[in-house]
């Protein structure tokens, strides 16, 4: 009789542990991302050299994107922002991380599949 009772108690305990586990949620919001990258708009539209404030924002975001969920959220935000802000040149957007000395681990492109970003 103790065997089934112990198994039941184990199953209940495991269900409670799983239910209490935090869900993978991005800490970065699109609002934070666009705020940090706002100084980059002149570069994104006209090229040249990105401003110091722009690269500072890129580096800050890179350090904030610590999880897969964060990086996927950043990818999705960058992808949607690139298509919704008039005048953004995708070549400039793609080159921005490199110009700021940052490797973000995925291409800045409207064609990237953000679900595959790790």
From TrEMBL:
Q: Report if keyword Transport is assigned.
A: yes
Endpoints of the signal sequence: 1-26
Which Gene3D superfamilies has this protein been placed in?
Plant lipid-transfer and hydrophobic proteins
Record keywords: Lipid-binding, Signal, Transport
Where does the sequence pass through the membrane? none
Bifunctional inhibitor/plant lipid transfer protein/seed storage helical domain location is: 30-114
Do the record's keywords include Transport?
A: yes
Please provide the Gene Ontology terms (biological process) for this protein.
lipid transport
Please name the SUPFAM superfamilies in this protein's record. Answer: Bifunctional inhibitor/lipid-transfer protein/seed storage 2S albumin
Q: Which family does it belong to?
A: Belongs to the plant LTP family.
Q: What is the name of the protein in this document?
A: Non-specific lipid-transfer protein
What species does this protein belong to?
Answer: Tamarix hispida
């Amino acid at each position: 009789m103790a065997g089934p009772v112990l198994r039941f108690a184990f199953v209940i305990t495991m269900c409670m542990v799983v239910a209490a586990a935090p869900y993978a949620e991005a800490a970065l919001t699109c609002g934070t991302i666009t705020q940090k990258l706002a100084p980059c708009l002149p570069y994104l539209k006209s090229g040249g050299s990105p401003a110091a404030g722009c690269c500072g924002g890129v580096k800050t975001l890179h350090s904030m994107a610590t999880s897969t969920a964060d990086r996927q959220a950043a990818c999705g935000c960058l992808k949607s922002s690139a298509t919704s802000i008039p005048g953004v040149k995708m070549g400039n957007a793609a080159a921005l991380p490199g110009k700021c000395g940052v490797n973000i681990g995925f291409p800045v492109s409207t064609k990237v599949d953000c679900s595959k970003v790790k």
